Amino acid sequence: MENKITVKWSGEEYPITDIEENDTVLSLKNKIHKLTGVRPERQKLLNLKFKGKAAQDNDIISQLGLKQGFKLMMMGSREEDIAEVSQAPENMPEVINDLDIEEEEVEIEKAEIYLAKIQKRIETYKIEELSPLREGKKLLVLDIDYTLFDHRSVAESGIELMRPYLHEFLTSAYKNYDIVIWSATSMKWINEKMRLLGVTNNPNYKIAFHVDSLAMISVHTPKYGVVDVKPLGVIWGKYKQFSAKNTIMFDDIRRNFIMNPQSGLRIKAFKQAHLNRNTDRELLKLSKYLEAIAELDDFQVLNHRKWEEYRSMHKKCKKSKRTERTDPPSQT
């Protein structure tokens, strides 16, 4: 008996068609090694289960009950990638995987050719609502990879790669915002990642809907050529209650909101989860920022690049007001 499995790793898909009746999970890992360069001992096959538990190396593939064309999510790093990290000099400044597009932003977001692409997405892209939108709430749009989840590192489970305080952050944000997940991957993988992270059925908050790569558009930047971006206008065109006045998007790559630069906040990328999960406090800090700006009628007065300054100033103002209320009146 032959079966076919598609392995999803590092944003790419690798079909494996030569799986035989008696092949084990270890045999599968060896085949994956040949295709990806990730050694079997470094592979974490996240959604490969046997009797409700993670499949072991000696389990027989044909006994796992996989459907033809099963898509397998893998975490793991090549040896050369690990070597690059371990040999990097200490105190080296952070390298930002982004584009220097400030001078181009205004021209691109107003270009008729791209506005026409957005209109086409509004007309053709279908959104499946997961929970009802609530009247009077603002909109928070979140990326997944490196924003909420370290999708490259190796771990025993997806939860270990989750950004610290994710559920606390979403619970806090849900008070003032309808929450949308927008990832540059397929809907299948968005759904799977949200399930692995425990977001899908969390009782403390709801996700309004997911948006996948099919809602993105390609734009041409004079300096860097063609790039795919996430235009918030697609959502705004479908839901008239949302606009630049009440929407904020978090993404670790700033070019993703080049069509709406003033609505985007570039979050620090969450990588190397095993090294940083005990010190990363980004979501806790951003929770306070979201809470502070929720009081505003128009987000267009904000510069999200200075969000930490705004958060600090707002905190001082609140403390000052509390002091004024508790201080006894002066005696004359």
List its salient traits.
alpha/beta; 18% strand; globular; 332 residues; five-stranded parallel beta sheet; four-stranded mixed beta sheet; 2 domains
Notes on the structure:
The structure is a single chain. 30% of the residues lie in helices and 18% in strands. The chain has ten helices and 13 strands. A hairpin with a 2-residue loop joins strand 4 (49-50) and strand 5 (53-54). Helix 5 runs parallel beside helix 9 and helix 9 packs across helix 10.
Structure classification: alpha/beta
Query: Radius of gyration in whole Å, from Cα?
Result: 23 Å
Helix content: 25-40%
* Number of discrete domains: 2
Count of DSSP-assigned helices = 10
Topology:
Layout: E1 3-9, E2 12-19, H1 25-36, E3 44-45, E4 49-50, E5 53-54, E6 70-75, H2 79-86, H3 102-109, H4 112-124, E7 138-142, H5 166-173, E8 177-182, H6 187-196, E9 207-211, E10 217-221, E11 225-229, H7 233-238, E12 247-251, E13 264-266, H8 273-276, H9 282-293, H10 307-326
Quick summary of this structure?
The protein is α/β, with parallel strands linked by helices. Helix content is 30%, strand content 18%.
